[in-house]
Amino acid sequence: MLSTFLSHQRKSFWRSRNRGSSIAGQIVLGFFMLYFFVLAIGAGLSMAHLLNYFFPGQDVIKSFNGIILYYFAFDFIMRLQFQELPTLSIIPYLHLRISRSKIIKFLNVKALFSAFNIWPFFIFLPFCFIKIAPAFGAITTLMYIVSIFSIMVFNNYLVLYIKRKSITNTLYTFIGMLVIAAFAALEYYKVISIMAGSDFVFRAIVAQPVYAFAFTLAAIAIFYINSGFLRKNLYVEELSKKQEKKGSTDYAFLNRFGKVGELAALELKLILRHKRPRSAVIMGFFFLFYGFAFYKQEPISRDAFGQMMFGAIFMTGISIIIYGQFMFAWQSAHFDGILANKIDFKDFIKAKFLLFTIGCTIITLLASFYGFKSPKLLLLHLAAYLYNIGFGTVVVLYLATLNYKRLDITKAASFNYQGTGATQWLLMFPYALTPILMYVPFGILNKPYWGLAVVGIFGLIMLLLRGFWVNYIAKRLEKQRYKIAEGFRE
Amino acid sequence: MILEVKKLQKVYGDKTVVNIEDLQIAAGETVGLVGNNGAGKTTFFRMLLDLIRPTTGEVLSKGENVMQNDNWKNYTASFLDEGFLIDYLTPEEYFIFIGSLHNLSVADVSAYLSQYGEFFNGEILNSGKYIRDFSKGNQVKVGIAAALMQKPEILILDEPFANLDPTTQIRLKKLLKEQAGNMTTFISSHDLNHVTDVCSRIVLVEKGKVIKDFKTDENTLKELESYFSA
Fold it and tell me: Is A485 on the interface with B (CB under 8 A)?
């Protein structure tokens, strides 16, 4: 029975519409997977060096023992946020002649198929074999592995149990991160040491290998608690997250824009009420820190804006790039409704411009803290900002009229490449290269500020031509509407 | 004629899904479109609403081709499927949005909705849910109510009775009958009882073609039943 379930799961994975259907999307996904895999293996193999680097002058085994519990605390928080409940997959089986215990077994096994249950092997096992085995012998090594494996299983089922009891939300994850950070700080100032605690625990295992089974017992205990809970509550509505009451919202500040404002408000709600666009927006705020990597003292002092242009465009225009790459597809579920209703294409396009402008303005204002680093950066940002809202928006919306891929926005964003096609990857080239190419001649002639001015003025002119662009893109949308609607219906 | 269909064809690959030579609908008629699955009903409706480009032929609404301009949207309301609903809105937000497209104020919309308390059976308004969290039947109710709110001259509904509970089916029939004469209604249905009850004219389609087109009378239901059981 279990193997039938698992074969269904395998099919549902490979046949899912969600999977990036294009080859390009798949290759990129595979590449990312490989990258993380290599990274984890690399970290595992070079663990001894890394530990020496971070904790110089300390016995590596002591350091290794010290980080294990930290890793799993972090692992726990991450799981709380990202590990998914394998609940929905059982719906088609509940009414069939399949016993509850089999369904529960299936749920338990399925829960093990998670990337979180692979990393520890890559990260910790190499060190166990390279350092622990020569130092303490086979039995102890085995017990290390048993305890690491047990803690992993413990975390796995504990998180599922917590999630099933619906006592979690993003806020808790955030608080958890803060708690870990606090402990790390206390560690740093040598007030309380988790590392010492972790080391103490594993020293005990070295001294008396049997102690490792304490972790195993804990893992078995939580496994049974979880199974027991499932057995008593095998109802889908009780196992999935609770619903909270939804209210109607009105964005007063958009009302002054009339019908365009209505449409913009509609889209704002779309962003805030779905996981995927919401995380796209949150990503945008994270990219505010991108500047620390791009704005080095040396190019700033040389006025080498060409080098920093990409960073500036990317940072201030992130909301346009990330949200814009799936433009129109965000609305694929109700695109028919938009076409059949009395919505003017021009208003529709204007609303997009309005949202982009608002988003880009907010991000650019927030990014102005780089002004403390050098006031020159503010000029760079201004040029990038004008370019983004003037021309970047046009590029994005033009490409949107070529995008026919449906997008299911209720799914999470991470590792979701649905709706991704070659257009999305190509988007970055014209977008980022145009301003750089405009700047380059002035950079060569050593007139950096002229270069900035040209990029900024170009953006400003395009901004003044917005009426023209609105008409142009509305015309294109009108022409492409059947193709887009058809793609979105699939 | 408020709606005219001329030589309308839709071909996918080598399969002709819709092939309607000529169909005329006069203002005020209530027309029922009947046919088995795959007869091309939904594709036909989508072409009426300019959602699919016809391979050949045209749809004229008040004499104007629906592909050429948007004037028909001023007096046409429709609900084909959930793709017409903006499902992340609360019903109130959705009604207000649709109302705003027809220049109805929030007060107008609430006034309109107040007469639908019975139709909604107290489950739709102030429910604290997004449309996507409703049952299919309640989603259909939202879609139909939003369509009627636009006070359209032409109303197009695809399978409106499916998914509705019996009480609502009867209420919807009453609503549609009351409008007969001043609103042109075009509905499709698999329920022969309902269409013959509501519609003054039945169009029977098979494999994209109009097989029969007649006015309803007391024998219509029997006729249709014998056709479909053959």
Answer: yes
Shortest Cα–Cα distance, A90 to chain B (Å): 20
Min Cα–Cα distance to chain A from B74, Å:
6
Asked if A168 and A77 touch (Cβ cutoff 8 Å), the reply is: no
pLDDT at A489: 84
Name the residue of chain A whose CA is nearest to B67's CA. A478
Neighbours of B119 (CB within 10 A): 18
Looking up tokens 């998180």 gives A159
Has residue A443 got a pLDDT over 70?
Answer: yes
Q: Is A341 on the interface with B (CB under 8 A)?
A: yes
Digit-coded pLDDT (tens) for B176-200 = 898 878 899 999 999 899 999 999 9
- In whole angstroms, give the CA distance from residue A279 to residue A414: 9
Coil, strand, or helix at residue B60?
strand
> Are the CB atoms for A273 and B88 separated by under 8 Å?
yes
ipTM for the whole complex: 0.78
Distances (CA, A) of A297 to A293, A301, A442, A445, A451: 11, 6, 21, 22, 20
Which residue in A has a C-alpha nearest to residue B48's C-alpha? A340
Q: What is the spatial distance between Cα A123 and Cα A427, in angstroms, rounded to a whole number?
A: 36
Distance in angstroms (rounded) separating the CA atoms of residues B157 and B42 = 10
- Answer whether A340 sits within 8 Å of B84, measured CB to CB: yes
Cβ distance B51 to A482 less than 8 Å, yes or no, reads yes
B21, containing H or E segment: strand B15-25
Closest B-chain CA to A335: B83
Enclosing H/E stretch for A459 = helix A448-464
> What percentage of chain A reaches a pLDDT higher than 90?
21
Q: Tell me, what DSSP letter sits at residue A327? A: T
- Say if pTM beats, i.e. exceeds, 0.80: no
Q: A380 in helix, strand or coil?
A: helix
Rounded-to-integer distance, Cα B65 and Cα B51, Å = 13
Distance CA A334, CA A12 (A): 25
